[in-house]
Amino acid sequence: MPVVEHTVIITNKVGLHARPATLFVQSAARFHSRIQVRCGEKYANAKSIVGVLKLGASQGATLVIQADGEDASEAVQALVTLVENKFDEE
Amino acid sequence: MTDDEIDPFPDILHALPISPGIALGPVLLLKSASAAVEYARKVEKEQIAHERQRLQEAIEAAEGEIDALHKQVARNVGSAEAEIFSAQKLMLRDPELLDEVEALMTNQLVSAETAWSETIAKQSAEMAALPDPLLAARAADVRDMGARVLSHLQAQGAVMEEHPDRGPFLIVAYDLTPSQTARLDPATILGICTVEGGPTTHAAIIARALEIPAVAGLDAQLLAELRSGQELAIDGAQGLIYLKLDDAQRATLSAAMDEQLRSKRMRDTARWQTRPGETADGQSVFVYANVGDSEGARTAAENGAQGIGLLRTEFLFGQRTTFPTEQEEFAGYLDLFQSFARQARFQKIIVARTLDAGADKPFPALEPLIGNWHEANPALGLRGARIHLLHEKLLRQQLRALLRAASAAQIELHIMFPMIATLTETRRMKQVLAEVRQTLSEEEGSPVPEVRVGVMIETPAAVWLADALAREVDFFSIGANDLSQYTLAADRTNSRVMSLFGPLEPSLWRSINHVIQAARAHGRPVAVCGEIAADGRYGPLLAGLGSTELSVSPPALTRIKEALHQHEMAYWQAKARELLLAETAAEMEEMLRQA
Predict the structure, then answer these.
(1) Cβ within 8 Å, pair B83-A50
(2) Residue B39 within a domain
(3) Same-domain status, B172 and B66
(4) Is B202 among the catalytic positions?
(5) Are B227 and B359 in the same domain?
(6) Domain end marker among B250, B272, B294
């Protein structure tokens, strides 16, 4: 099983708040792979909205996205793109 | 409380401003969503599978509710506010949260309620402890979602049962969840005063979007002393709670509240002007206007008419003693069409009713043709289509002028014939229209586009020919005022008989239903014009019967759109079907009273 990891910096104004976090988790849920997000010392399951919100990731924070499974590289790519595109909100 | 008792609370308290505005009125105490309810804690090992199943069902039920709320808020408040419920839906299926619940159930042998509420309490507390206040406020969503699932586990149905049946009230509660707030009807809720809550909670965002004044930070001890029905006032902008009011304060706050209401009503009207007619579940019902002159056409367009459903062409005649020329008719129609088209927000459809003259309305211009026009029963006399067929030249001229003006103003013209009693006269008038189009096309060297042709259903004869007429024409328009007159054999101009009958007569409603069903069977749209269509209590019921369009006076347009939007189409259909079972006007009244 491939394991894929990628680092991305949050650039949207509000960070991983309700709406961006919702989009992030909805996006992660589309993939079969197990996906983990790390922000500083905190880890979260990318498919858990409660976990992602509790990361408390604000603008400027670094996220490390790691996926493990058949569609790992697609999953990481999709999430990185979402963050880089500022969740299409700006 | 008398003056002798010691009053621990000052008359005006400082609280947190949540949503601006003044609210003054009787208190309605709501029990909190998180009120503790007894449930079994420990369960036997064999029961765990059953608990798991119960939790699954409760989550599914909650999911259905959240979906419904999402749609409702998106429609009534805005799609940005509705996003709250997307997040809550994800929380319901959160894998980490569900794993925790599962672990508690299997390792500690506790009930689904216990495992669920402990997990929710822990997760919401962790979230509330986040340093970022915006993120911390999301704890309220975890609790809201949690309370919803719990209420299903306890088979108590919706979280808030104590919905006020009357009002308006000032809601006082320990706290309100976003779901509870979204369900509040701004028409019956003056304001919200809670112990818990802050300006960044989703409940606060929804209160602001619904323009319901709100404050938080009420003393919990004071909450215990407040009683439903007592007077209270809040100032949501300044964060003030008025426990006691003197006459001057009451007058000032009342005036401010009236002003607030007036300005809100104006904005509401503006909102309905820009929206199409539809039921709460988005089923379209066209709301058209009845218009009798250019000024009316302009007002209709401004007020958001989706078309002109009844153009009374009599306006060109007035007190004239000579018949207008074709050019005069053309100029009059063109001005009216343009008045509508210039400001129309929706389609530029105009349904013109050909001249509906009768001896009860004086038409001096027609007298040279008709001669002595004094009739014992004008309502049963020479009128509408009957004049057209006696004097086809007038009809031809009017049709020519209408077709030419429609093409010049670039509007979509539909033609409608009044006072139809037979299929033969309908066919004859269609024939005349076809000939007029043919001649005009030849004169102008290009084909005059086809126009849709309809008939007014005003006579019992037309009601019972509805199936045959539906095969012959493109649409119906039920003239409810005349249909009532002819069905009940009650002269509209005779107040002594008219006072005996109201809009709710089973014979009238059954006639209308018969016409609508016949039209539907042939795929024809049916409009209803007349007073019942413009009444907020009855118009939506006509839509429930299957009427596709309501045509009302311009000032009633926004009112009817608002009335239609109060319930889903299935509600109006059920209510209308029930109404048809009534045998007396009193029974119909009674059925409508039961909401």
Answers:
(1) no
(2) no
(3) no
(4) yes
(5) no
(6) B272
- How does pLDDT run across B129-184, given as a tens digit for each residue? 988 888 888 898 999 899 888 877 875 333 343 444 567 889 898 887 777 777 77
The number of distinct structural domains making up chain B is: 3
Using a CB-CB distance cutoff of 8 angstroms, which residues of chain B are in contact with residue A47?
95
Active site positions of A, annotated: 17
pLDDT, position B2: 45
Which amino acid belongs to residue B53? Q
ipTM value: 0.90
B15: nearest Cα among B312, B239, B331: B239
> For A50, which residue in chain B has the nearest alpha carbon?
B91
Question: Do B29 and B122 belong together in one domain?
Answer: no
Quote the CA–CA distance of B355 and B394 in Å, as a whole number.
9
Look up the CATH number of domain A3-88.
3.30.1340.10
Same domain, B262 and B295: no
Distance from CA of A2 to the nearest CA of B (A): 22
Please count the CA atoms within 13 angstroms of the CA of B530 that sit on its side-chain side: 21
Tell me the β-bridge partners of A78.
none
Kindly report the CATH number assigned to the domain that includes residue B392: 3.20.20.60
Q: What is the pLDDT of residues B151-166, one digit of tens each?
A: 778 753 333 434 445 6
Whether residue A18 and residue B141 make contact (CB cut-off 8 A), yes or no, is yes
B563 burial (CB, 10 Å; 0-12 / 13-18 / 19+) is: buried
List chain A domain ranges: 3-88
Contacts of A48 in chain B (CB under 8 A): 94-97
**Which residue out of A53, A87, A89 would a mutagenesis test of the B interface target, given it has the greatest number of B Cβ atoms within 10 Å?**
A53
**For chain B, how big is the Rg over CA atoms in Å?**
31
**Range(s) of the domain holding residue B146:** 45-153
Where does a domain end: B91, B124, B153?
A: B153
In a domain, B6, yes or no: no
Selected for mutation to probe chain B from A10, A36, A49, A58 (highest B CB count within 10 Å) is A49
Report how far Cα B85 is from the mean position of its chain's Cα atoms.
24
Spatial separation of the C-alpha atoms in residues B163 and B28, rounded to whole Å = 10
| B135 inside 8 A of chain A by CB | yes
